[in-house]
Amino acid sequence: MKRIDMQSWDRREQYRYFSGMQWPYWALTCELDVTPARAFMKDRGIGSYLGMIYLVAKAANQIPELRLRIEGGEVYEHDLVHPSFTVQNTRGQLAFCKARFSADPDEFLARTRELMDRVKTAPEPPLQYTGQDELYLSCLPWVHFTSVSHPMNMTPQDAIPRITWGRFEPKGDGTVLAVNLHVHHGLADGLHGSQFMLALGALCAEPETGFAGLNA
Asked: Which of 141, 46, 149, 39 is nearest to 87 (CA)?
């Protein structure tokens, strides 16, 4: 992790401008073709939610602006950010899982699958804040949406990106997925949000690259 030098940072004016707003956030929702990725995950027995968590985290880590965080009034760039995501436990309640991202798909998928199974059956812990080196991920597998909003802390301003996707939606001969990105505008612009969507779309279009190194 490195602290951003505000005097030399080329985004300093944008950061100061948007951080001064009451609501300094913006969101982007795109419909991505996930036909190859879905078929790949089915063939290899990878749960679709788990597989998408891996691909989303991999794509987000490719975009430096999605690794920026505001901590104690300073801006820091993390070397790697990790998925913190929601699961529904066996009692039908919302629970949180925090996984450690690894580019090695075998390592990540096995470790995270075990974590998800454990959280689903564990006694329900209180919902609480965890850390800054995270991405907040969630899935709405029941609907194909066009937009999503998120609860955010304003004091201090929350700069952790939220990424949500919907159900696999048939379209033509393939399958599409609605993906929503919610970010702090002082840290990321439309260019960076678009770069994320394009990166995720590329990983879904070529899952052999997206899950490169998979032995399962």
From this structure: 141
